[in-house]
Task: inverse folding
């Protein structure tokens, strides 16, 4: 077992099992570049303020850079007995530069250090997730443009409702992702606040220049209360929530991909390269990717619940429970990124079966609303028109016809005001084109590039 | 059972049990002012666009106002057989103004109508919750000012760590609430988008003026995609999440109120008027309010999980599952508001026992960090100083003394560089005043009005 | 505001707002029959032990019975200012029988009283839920029997996999419900333990006969530790979890009902009386019931999370947070019961379109596994057979035929060992009948009455 | 990329990224002993039924044993390109024994195979967790016996309530763990059902002997419906729930360990070997272990939510989403086991400060209930006695005395019936010993070995 950074007051060595239970190195090691970057900024500031001599600072900076280089290249020999990445790097530093390395921790605690590291890490992740989200948005636009004349049934309650453009349907997801992006950006601003300089909880007794550190690390602001700063995990929760909603959106898209690739719907064909088969049923070609994305939604929800539960009722300031935030955060980042990437690539390869979609639009009385609207334009009240068309639908079902296929006489039987022009009125494409109000399905072609 | 707004196509009457299972009137009735306000705006726009004649619109507007007045005054006779508040108000309107009332629903569906109502409702709630949050922030500042010279132990791991100002401790919550407020404001902007004009899912076939409705209802923008607009519940989720974090913050404050009012801590006395006793133990005075607030945290978390689960994997566009968002939202609004109000009033009456806090600061070696810092200012590396003081603490525990009570000789035994000036250095108030870096406990008095 | 049962030690009156925040009467009033039943048993025991005189007990019992009768009949005048149902009934008792009523609470606390009441309540609920579950199981069997010769595609990944009997499919839900029932019964045994006699937390100082009370209230056992007994909510959690899994099962069934009633699947027609329409689209007939059941799954999950969160980290023994268990429990009971009832009635009216199902079985290469098995019976290894059939499927897709429609020559091209008898082998009904291993789809008709 | 077990029907190679996204080998490899054990049983049965020749079976069995041995010894060379542990072992088998290895999968699918593996795995885990739970129960009994005469305040609402025995307090946790154990055993019975023989979803077309396999693998029963069997994850959920409640219990114990080791309570001293210090504050000795256990409660709750969410609304039968159950399960098993072990070892080393506890019992009017009971034994009604003592407590607080310290005259002022004997009556130990009803704190010494 390695020497602890806090050993002086203890008479017994730590129990080996406890040591392992307690340690976070196995997962927080991925914070190393952020930890080193933060330490370098702290070191420079200590020198600037005369707390470290310039030559001391130079040695420390060199040592840190060397450690960074070694880890980057996979040449670093990890000391698994260290408690966490912070202790590990400090120990490696002292190894390399001697006693002067022990001066680095002046005015700092692991409490503010870990918050700094996670904020630096998360800041990068948010940028990546935003980019991945935009990639997916772009793909949706490309697909919408390529298929701008494809019509399919719009559904409510999974029942055919009204004809819509495929482009309109796809761009609904564009909107959802846009909101996700907006939330990520706002979260990013709350992440981008420097906690360093809060020390353990009360602030440091040294005259540190927090603004200098903030500038060097490109933070927008410094935290305003040290007790809050070391025990605040709002930014982790916020990212987990935004990710949960993002995954929820992807789960809806995935559900539709699964539905649309069934034999029954047949609206799309998934590329072989994105499907798997069965070890027993030779004909199977399964939409594993959207299923997994849908399933992983639960995973991200779970992480959100985990950290919400963990934070509930904790007194100020730092408590060890908070160490549990990291694995939830890391796994969420990895899950969301990979889901966005994989789904994006899958979508690019999807083949839309426009003929199947067209056939679907023609069955199921999707133009009933337009028939009612027709009656309204001829002067009937909306409620009466609705009822009249309801009866026509019932009649049509009984006679196994679509509305369009009713004869003039049959139509007149329900209302005298129905005339010749109803035929054109009920053409699905006309139904779509009449819906030109901003946001409606007929408004899409004009506004295809919402970004 | 009442006549449905969609009955035409149906041959059987709805099963009574199903009717009840399906109906939302028992809880969505609280949306009535929002429903009526939205309908009036819709009506005016229909008239402006010539879809309704002016006299038709006038009748409808009068009818709606009358209904509103009756409900406000408790004089409205509720028809419990109606499915929801939208159907109820339409039926009441037709009752009053006759067939013309049936024209109001032109170009509109309950799908966009319910989204409109909930957005109007939530917009108001967010304003209220922000105000309640600011009230609590104000109380914290008042308490901080009134007690600006009170010192208590700052804790980490619930172990005494370093002396801090009570004001600093209280203002940590000010910061948390500030973040909550920021999130509420951002959520408010995403709520404030007009969904009306999306109709069932594809948009209306009538030439509506959505911008006019948006202006009248004071919305910042109109929704960009009708399929998204009728099936988007992000804004509900976002409010539930923000409320969850807000409750988490209150649960931490509550935990501290519970702890501080124990016999063991004794830092505060709660006002009798905010406590309850026991039906069996005559001496009991229980901190029920903070306990309940802490417990209600779970309730709000639960609502968040509920709606996240509900939305998972739903295909476009509207599905009936989404009706389940409302009770979760309403209960969250009520819970958060009442917790903020009650906690605020409780805090106002709390008596801080400064003597007890002072005694607590004097026991538990809270100045050990400052002693290490002292050694660092005399030239020792931080790690060595830390270890030296660790040994001194161990010695002090063995001899049942505090660090301040060690004699010069005892101190020197651990390090020759300790001198006379260490005594003043270790005074708790000095420890605090040395921490003047922005955000540290010693920086508080200067910046008491953070708002 | 009413007089509290604990007022003696308090100098100030309770704040009105706090009173309301704190009170549980608005929801715990539904516990009244259980509260009165428990009080009567307690009273009889006190008399038996000589702690109450017989005539005192008689007065109290009469008073309690009278109160019960009044509430049952809706004649009771509720005093809304009471804190909870326990205080309310005690106050009503003293009103009726005078000071002797104040003796009822000897050796008892609200802490053990509320646990008793909830256990009595939940015991009944569990019985009801079990019965509702059995009702649904029975309906599944009746449907299976009525449709014993209906074949439909079995799906994995929502892709057609192999032909199965509709009966087999339905009975999968029978199994799930059977496990739910098993869990409910086991939970019922843990509920059925008497907590009364634990008093506030340490037990009563009077010589009570807990076993007598247990016998009278038909409990299986008495709780073994008073501190545990007053702070145990495991039984609530367990019921919430079992309900969550039950709802999950119902959500799967509901999902299938929604899918099957789409135009695309068309496997079932839902009865009009269980569907709703659209306020705007006259043709719509929506499967609201299964959608709502699916959506309410989130609601029950949410309650589980709520109570789990609430209980986390509470020190012994009773804490006020625990009051939050009741609304979650009550709403879960109501939700689960109504979902079971409504779904059961809906299922009874479902019309299965066997022709549509048959057609679906004939498209999609569902017999591919059987073709591979055929090759295995002729001596090929399974992996080779699987690959061979995979290639045949590919060929068949390219030529837009089903496997059965390949000519002998075409078949031989893939394997010489395919012979004449393959035709019969691939008949869907034969595929099913070959699966006679217990639990397989072909084993169903023999074992239709699994109960 | 390795050859898939389902490749025949596919024209394109799987996308590398998808391959990785899709693969479960990185986590399901820990199922290898269970996978091999299941395969061996399946193989023997195939031979018994004449589906495999004896020499074929022998080769396969040898091959499987060899693979097992290699993995056990760390000598196995893992083919990371394999999709999952099932494919990997089949491929390794064919590598070793040739084409005959391809016959092993006859009558089996990965759908029933993975359910089998997880059930075998979980069966072992449940046994381990039960044992760990019993270990902790035993420790509680040992501690109760060692400290059988230690008295401490019993708390409700974290306010001192009544004196209790430390043994009684500790044994409350014994009861909770006992319920956990009961639930684990019942879950174990539902786990112990053989799913193999369900094949993909419809059952195998070969004449397998499922009962033989069940006997060999020591299962109590075989699953009754193949479609249910391959898509049932109830047993995973049940284990996650039971673990959640178990963790909730541990979180309560942990909370008390944290509280009791504060300077303020001072009831216990934690062993150095189980605590950590601070990198900045030399005096700190933090109760990291109980804090971590408390924090990890959220982690297990999260996994439960994750799998509940994942299962919601999935149609029959197997869907790929279900692959997400494994990491949640594995991490829960590891978390629960390590928490039980570590907490058990920590408890063994805890030092109880009986003097501190005794002092705490003497302050805070803990005997007020007994004083009220005293008045009741002298004939006062309970409510009056409660109120009288409430007033005495108020008086005592004002005069800064405990109840015992009131003079005879002072006492008489509140009630004439108070006499000399009240002094002994109010001795804490007498208060405890009067509580002899089964389950009460005074009943403990007699029943110390509840097991």
Result:
């Amino acid at each position: 077992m390695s020497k602890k950074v806090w050993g002086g007051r203890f008479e017994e060595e730590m129990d080996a099992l406890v040591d392992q239970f307690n340690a976070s190195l196995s997962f927080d090691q991925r914070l190393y570049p952020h930890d080193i970057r933060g330490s370098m900024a702290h070191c420079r500031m200590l020198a600037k303020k005369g707390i470290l001599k310039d030559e001391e600072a130079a040695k420390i900076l060199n040592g840190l850079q060397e450690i960074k280089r070694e880890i980057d290249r996979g040449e670093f020999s990890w000391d698994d007995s260290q408690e966490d990445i912070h202790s590990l790097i400090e120990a490696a530093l002292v190894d390399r530069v001697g006693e002067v390395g022990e001066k680095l921790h002046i005015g700092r605690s692991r409490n503010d250090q870990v918050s700094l590291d996670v904020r630096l890490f998360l800041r990068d992740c948010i940028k990546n997730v935003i980019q991945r989200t935009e990639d997916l948005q772009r793909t949706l636009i490309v697909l919408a443009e390529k298929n701008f004349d494809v019509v399919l049934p719009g559904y409510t309650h999974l029942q055919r409702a009204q004809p819509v453009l495929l482009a309109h349907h796809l761009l609904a997801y564009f909107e959802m992702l846009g909101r996700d992006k907006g939330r990520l950006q706002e979260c990013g601003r709350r992440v981008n606040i420097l906690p360093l300089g809060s020390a353990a909880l009360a602030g440091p007794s040294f005259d540190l220049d927090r603004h200098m550190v903030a500038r060097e690390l490109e933070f927008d602001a410094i935290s305003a209360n040290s007790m809050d700063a070391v025990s605040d995990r709002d930014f982790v929760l916020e990212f987990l929530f935004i990710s949960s909603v993002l995954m929820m959106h992807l789960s809806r898209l995935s559900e539709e991909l699964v539905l649309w690739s069934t034999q029954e719907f047949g609206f799309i064909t998934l590329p072989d390269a994105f499907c798997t088969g069965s070890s027993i049923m030779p004909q199977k070609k399964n939409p594993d990717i959207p299923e997994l994305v849908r399933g992983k939604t639960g995973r991200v929800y779970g992480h959100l619940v985990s950290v919400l539960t963990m934070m509930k009722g904790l007194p100020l300031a730092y408590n060890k429970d908070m160490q549990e935030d990291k694995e939830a955060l890391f796994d969420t980042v990895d899950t969301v990124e990979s889901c966005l990437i994989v789904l994006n690539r899958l979508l690019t390869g999807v083949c839309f079966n426009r003929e199947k979609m067209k056939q679907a639009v023609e069955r199921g009385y999707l133009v009933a609303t337009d028939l009612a609207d027709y009656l309204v334009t001829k002067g009937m009240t909306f409620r009466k028109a609705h009822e009249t068309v309801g009866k026509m639908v019932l009649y049509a079902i009984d006679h196994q016809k679509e509305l369009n296929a009713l004869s003039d006489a049959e139509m007149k039987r329900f209302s005298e005001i129905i005339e010749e022009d109803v035929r054109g009125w009920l053409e699905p494409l006309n139904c779509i084109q009449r819906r030109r109000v901003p946001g409606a399905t007929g408004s899409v072609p004009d506004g295809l590039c919402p970004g």
Q: What stands out?
A: The mean pLDDT of chain D is 93. Chain D has 18 helices and six strands.
